[in-house]
From TrEMBL, chain A:
Gene Ontology biological-process annotations: endoplasmic reticulum unfolded protein response; protein O-linked glycosylation via mannose
Organism: Candidatus Opimibacter skivensis
TM spans (from-to): 21-45, 111-131, 138-157
The keyword Membrane belongs to this UniProt entry's keyword annotation: yes
PANTHER family: PROTEIN O-MANNOSYL-TRANSFERASE TMTC4, PTHR44227
Protein name, UniProt field: Glycosyltransferase RgtA/B/C/D-like domain-containing protein
Amino acid sequence: MAKKRKQDRIKPISQVAEPDISGMGGLSEPVIALLLALFGFVLYANTLGHGYVLDDDLTISLNANVQRGISGIANIFSQPYRDNCFGGCLYRPLTLSCFAVEWAIAPNSPFIGHLMNVAWYSATVALFYITLRKLIPYSNSILLCAVVVLFMAHPIHTEVVANIKSRDEILSLFFYNPQFIPVCEMV
Amino acid sequence: MLVAAGLTFIAAMLSKEGAVTALAVFPLIGWTFFQKSFSSSLKSSAWAIISVALFFFCVAWC
């Protein structure tokens, strides 16, 4: 009798109702991601009027390959990050290519650098939310948003967004984030 | 999806070489959170190993 009761309690997976993951006023996931990105953009919009600081000069305004614009991209991919391996022989051609394209659009303009930094950071935050949603599909949207907002507004990220040179870290995280989706699907 | 994952992993490493540490993280995810054997987790991360090899080839060529 007890066994029969236990069997009655176990329902086939098709009959199990999906947990309620709403809580954001019926907003769809892309809209939530877009709103988070917009919040990230507004949060760091005050950096748009800033100039070159710290390593920015060394990486952008004094970098001969970046100053060549798009024609310098071939050299960027075949040379170290800084001239004469200053600070170590690093290799970050994708970041320097971004700077070269921006230099071609608006030479010696920190505004476009800051604008792209904030835009990439906003996109990274949106992607972070989407990745979390894929990894934890039945979690509450409000909880996920809280995690993402905490990550986004944490002051430890201020230097990364406010310093144009730190685009390397933003781009790295942007491309690094979605890796976890296939990893968790495969293992 | 594997090709896309490999390409974005290479892009992450070309942006900043610190992303290479994910090579250790990916197998550990399977081993720690999904209770898979370490060897099968390592096999599932073969695409990441290939990506890192390609990245180091680029660095050596540079």
